[in-house]
Amino acid sequence: MQDPIKPTPEHQRLTEHRQRRADWRRWGPYLSERAWGTVREDYSADGEAWDHFPYRHARRRAYRWNEDGLAGISDRNQHLCFALALWNEQDSHLKERLFGLTGPQGNHGEDVKESYFYLDSTPTHSYMRMLYKYPQGRFPYEALVEQNARRGHAEPELELEHTGAFDEQRYFDVFVEYAKADQQDILRAHRNPTSSQQSYEFTEILRIHRHPTNYIYIYTLHIQHIYIYVFHIYTIYSPLYIIHI
User: Tell me: the pLDDT tens digits for 118-174?
Assistant: First the structure.
């Protein structure tokens, strides 16, 4: 007879949550990476949600019913949201959410044009890890919109990697990790955003700015370190980052 599986700390957390002795799932990856172009934010007279709230509006308009953010977390009611904002000194605006095409813009309909990967998450979200690949050069927003609009339904889509944005490995690998010490004690770590040798050799040229963004309804903070003692959510940075805030 095989020995029974030894319970892990995650098993214990699941038991505590199931018995309602701890609310381990109060905080989790509930924050959408994009909320623009959705029906719930559509207040147009003709019901065209994509045209009423496209991506370009998201950085200058407030959402009414939800929020979005890059590699973010929130409580289950989205009363408080934490996310990441990036800037490579080349783009005209911060990278705060995923970019994509609306239904009419894409030759195959709606599609996000980004490169990101969910790497790990425990059932209680006690540990979460994500990778976002951010071009070191200017993000090709215009090229993705214009060239996909010119393509027909029988042609393949133009994806981000087809634009040359990642050529010669000139992109930042941005790893974002969350770990819970208990149900309301959360650590966020941003680690090693470099992927090419050039990133180490030309630090005066290739810089990435990182701004944790906190959404408390309409109140937004852009600060380097977050210490919110009510929720005990902390942010740390790897020394490999080049930070200019």
Answer: 999 999 999 999 999 999 999 999 999 999 999 999 999 999 999 999 999 999 998
Compute the distance between CA of residue 178 and CA of residue 50 in angstroms, rounded to an integer. Answer: 32
Number of residues that make up the chain: 245
Q: What's the pLDDT score for residue 14?
A: 95
Structure tokens at 151: 């393509």
**pTM score of the predicted model:** 0.79
User: Domain range holding 208?
Assistant: 9-237
* Residue 178 DSSP SS3: strand
Of 165, 63, 177, 151, whose CA–CA distance to 113 is shortest?
165
Q: Is residue 4 part of a domain?
A: no
Q: What's 32's DSSP letter?
A: B
Please give the sequence-ordered ranges of beta strands (E in DSSP) within 50-168, or none if there are none. 70-75, 81-87, 100-101, 111-112, 116-121, 127-135
Residues 212-233: pLDDT tens digits?
Answer: 555 443 333 333 333 332 334 4
Give the span between the Cα atoms of 41 and 140, in whole angstroms: 26
HSE-up of 94 (CA within 13 Å, CB side)?
18
Does residue 61 lie in a domain region? yes
Is 243 among the domain residues? no
The C-alpha atoms of residue 65 and residue 60 are separated, in whole angstroms, by 16
Contact of 95 with 139, CB cutoff 8 Å? yes
Tell me whether residue 121 is in a domain. Answer: yes
Q: For the chain, what is the domain count? A: 1
Percent of the chain with pLDDT over 90: 42
Is the separation of the CB atoms in 88 and 137 below 8 Å? yes
